Amino acid sequence: MNIILFPKKDTKPSIWSGGLTYEYMIYPKMANYADRDFVFRISSATIEEVPSEFTQFKGYYRYLVMLDNGLEIEINKEKKVYQQYEIMEFNSDDEVTSFTKGIDFNWMISEKIAQHKLEITNRNQKCNAQILILFSLHTTVIKINEKPYDLEPYDCLLKMKKRKI
C-alpha cells in the first residue's frame, strides 16, 4: 500500500480560462494533462471569472465539489444549482458554464475505469477501494492503520493499493 500526502502549500498553480488550477496528482506519473493520457487527475481550482467555460475533455468523467459556497451552473444549456459540498457529476466533454466564483475540488477519471465513486464524509469508515482520496477541509489528523497523518486545509492524502489500476 502506498500513502502519499500532497500538501496544498506545495502545489503550483496553472492558469485556465476562468482562474487557477492546483494539480495535486496525475496518474500515472508520466502522464501529461495536455496530452489527455492520464487515468485520473486530482486538482482544486479557483473560479474567478463569471461566466466561465469549463475545459472539455473527451473520454473522461468528472466530479466537482464547491468548497466555499454553492454553484450556479449550466450543463449543456440546462441550468442547475449545487449547494456547498454537494457533488456534481458530469461527462468532461459536456458544455459547462459557471456563473459563480469560488474554490472547487476536481477529480477527473478516464471512462475506461468502470468503477469509481466520490463520497463526502466526516466520520470513521472502513474502505476496501483500490484508490482512496482524502481531501481535508480543515486542520485534522487522519489515521490509516493506526498511523497518524496531519493535514492542513485543502491538503490531499492518497492511498493506493500496490496492484496496478
Provide structural commentary:
This protein has 165 residues and is an all-beta fold. It has a domain at 11-110: Jelly Rolls, CATH 2.60.120. The protein contains no helices and 15 strands. The protein has strands at 2-6, 13-16, 19-27, 40-47, 52-53, 60-66, 71-75, 78-82, 87-91, 96-98, 102-110, 131-135, 140-144, 147-151, 156-160. A six-stranded antiparallel beta sheet has the order 2-3-4-11-6-9, with no helix packed on it. Strands 5-10-7-8 form a four-stranded antiparallel beta sheet, with no helix packed on it. A three-stranded antiparallel beta sheet has the order 1-15-12, with no helix packed on it. Strand 7 and strand 8 form a beta hairpin. 22% of the residues are buried. The mean pLDDT is 89.
Total count of helical runs of at least 4 residues: 0
One letter per element, helices H and strands E, the order comes to: EEEEEEEEEEEEEEE
Rounded to an integer, what's the Rg over CA atoms?
A: 16 Å
Range of strand content: over 45%
CATH fold-level label of the domain at 11-110: Jelly Rolls
Distance between the termini: 13 Å
Any idea of the CATH class of the domain at 11-110? Mainly Beta
Query: Ranges with pLDDT <50 over ≥5 residues?
Result: none
The global form is globular
**What is the average of the pLDDT values?**
89
Number of strands: 15
Strand order of the largest sheet: 2-3-4-11-6-9
CATH superfamily of the domain at 11-110: Jelly Rolls
CATH architecture of the domain at 11-110: Sandwich
Helix vs. strand class = mainly beta
Largest sheet: 6 strands, antiparallel
Helix content: under 10%
